[in-house]
Structure formats: C-alpha cells, structure tokens
C-alpha cells in the first residue's frame, strides 16, 4: 500500500537535535522536579528514568503517581522561546510543501510548544492535524495514542509513515503496522531506515516506491 499519510514527530526530526532546545527543556524538567519534590537536582534523572520507563513520559508518570498538575508542569517546562535556539531552515518548509501526502504532527510535547516551534519555523500550515500531549495523557509509545490519531485522521496504519527520532516511538508505530523512518543527524538508525535531515525525505519516499533504485539511506 502506498504511503498517503506521514506522521511527523516535531522535536529533532523537524529541526536539528544540535539546536539545544530539547537540552534546555530537559534542564527545566529537572528543575521542576527538584522544586516540586524538594530534592537535589542531581537525583532527578533517576526519578525521570523510572517514570519514563513505567509510563512512557515524565509528565504522565508525575501525574499518575504523584498527581502533579499538568498546567504547572507545561507552564514551567516549556517557557522557552524557540527563536533563542533554532534558526529557521527554509528547506524544511520547502520539503514539507513538496510532499503530496497528508501530513500531521504527532508529538509528546504540549500544544503551546508545538505551536510556537511550528510558527517559528514557518511550517504550521504544512500540517492538516497536530496531535500533542494533552490531559488524556495518551502518549507515544502507548498504542492508545496511535489509535487516537488514526481514528481522528481517518487513515489506516498500513498507509502511514511515522517519522521520529526515538527508537521506542518507532517501535510502537511498527507494532501498529506503520512504516517507520528515523531522523538522526549522526545516522544512527539502530535497525530502522534512517535519514540525517528531513530534506532527504522525498528521495527516501521515491526510493521506497522504486526499490530497484540506488539508495544511500541506511
């Protein structure tokens, strides 16, 4: 079945991981946890690791296990200006606009962050839907998150391509029957088809539809 819908993770696939934005968010998550639980900040990574492994996302674990406020978390953690970290790359918009498939954002970040980043990159109008972290807390790689998106969009997993930078999210998509593509600047695919920059996506799709063509995609 041909790909008719492309599901894009936002953070890292659509701007460089080397920008430092996610690193800054990571620092603020640690600060939030340290303040909320009155614990040394150096102890926060261990708690986050446990919550991430058990629940799939730090906020989901904080909410379910400790009844942490969604609003307090997202207000603090995402209080960053993307312009301080990311330089807009016109080739990203050009690439997205060149793709005939329906395109959606499928992110574990909250809607305000997604809107700010998409606005800064001038790509907000490239997507027909944006699915973000919200109060029902269905996040990748929870199967409920993928099913929620497919039902809302009206597509099947077999006609969908998931573009993400996180192996466990890609694994979740593959289990649902999606095709998957990793974006990693260092081309560390870990068994997944991998490109280094989103502008390589049209070539990847062309080669997917023409398996006999030569390919540099790992």
UniProtKB/TrEMBL annotation:
List the InterPro entries hit by this protein, alphabetically.
HAD-like_sf, HAD-SF_hydro_IA, HAD_sf, Pyr-5-nucltdase
Superkingdom classification of source: Bacteria
Matches recorded under Pfam families: Hydrolase (PF00702)
PANTHER family linked to this entry: HALOACID DEHALOGENASE-LIKE HYDROLASE
According to UniProt, the name of this protein is: Pyrimidine 5'-nucleotidase
* UniProt source species: Candidatus Raymondbacteria bacterium RIFOXYD12_FULL_49_13
């Amino acid at each position: 079945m041909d790909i008719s819908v492309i599901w894009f993770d936002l953070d890292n696939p659509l701007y460089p991981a080397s920008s430092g934005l996610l690193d800054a968010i990571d620092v603020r998550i640690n600060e939030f946890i340290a303040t909320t639980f009155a614990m040394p900040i150096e102890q926060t990574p261990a708690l986050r690791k446990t919550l991430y492994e058990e629940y799939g996302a730090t906020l989901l674990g904080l909410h379910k296990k400790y009844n942490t406020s969604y609003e307090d978390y997202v207000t603090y953690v995402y209080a960053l200006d993307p312009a301080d970290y990311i330089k807009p790359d016109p080739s990203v918009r050009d690439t997205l606009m060149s793709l005939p498939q329906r395109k959606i954002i499928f992110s574990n970040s909250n809607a305000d962050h997604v809107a700010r980043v998409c606005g800064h990159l001038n790509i907000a109008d490239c997507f027909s839907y944006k699915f973000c972290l919200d109060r029902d807390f269905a996040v990748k790689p929870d199967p409920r998150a993928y099913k929620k998106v497919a039902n809302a969009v009206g597509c099947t997993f077999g006609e969908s391509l998931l573009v993400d930078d996180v192996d466990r999210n890609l694994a979740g998509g593959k289990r649902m029957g999606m095709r998957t593509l990793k974006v990693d600047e260092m081309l560390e695919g870990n068994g997944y088809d991998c490109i280094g920059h989103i502008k390589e996506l049209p070539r990847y799709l062309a080669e997917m539809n023409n398996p006999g063509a030569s390919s540099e995609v790992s």
